[in-house]
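Sample intake sheet
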Amino acid sequence: MMMEFTTWDILRNLLLAARWTVLLSLVSFVGGSLVGLAILFMRIGKNVWLKRFAQGYIELFQGTPLLMQLFLAFFGLGLVGVDVPAWLAAALALTLWTAAFLAEIWRGCVEAIVRGQWEASSSLAMGYVQQMRYVILPQALKIAVPPTVGFSVQVVKGTALTSIIGFVELSKAGTMVTNATFQPFIVYGFVALIYFALCWPLSKSSQILERKLNVAHRNH
């Protein structure tokens, strides 16, 4: 006997799954920010080998599909005898992918600071670390906020691909609920609305921050 699902049952199950989408997005974004910051310092530092490593890392993760990275994190480690849960493989792959993009976004923001700021701080006998800490990074941070917030939308949407390795987040739950209810229009309509509810505030915040920071920069 087939179980009857009300519209509320469908929505409730999708909202429960959306918690995992939000959690995975937060873990990936925070972890990606930390790794990305380390890659950024390698990329803009003076050590040639670290710069090459950082550049290679960025090109590798930007130049290959996220789907393939998820497969390698989940199945690749399994081939060498490491049993990786789907949620861990998803978090690892998304973190490394996020780090590559954030490092490149932030590198552009650092390089957007005019050369005169480097020269002025150098004339004050500041070392490289002091220049970065007190002069360059505070200014680059203002430029970086809007694109960083904007990229968080891509992280949220990227979590949908983790369903391919069995991680049950919003899109995977949508497929499972559709198979149980045979109501794809209603189910995926709700899925789209939930993704929109998650992503639209982030996109709007990015636009508002960009306008405000641009105005502040011009006034300054």
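Comment: The mean pLDDT is 89. The longest helix spans residues 7-44.
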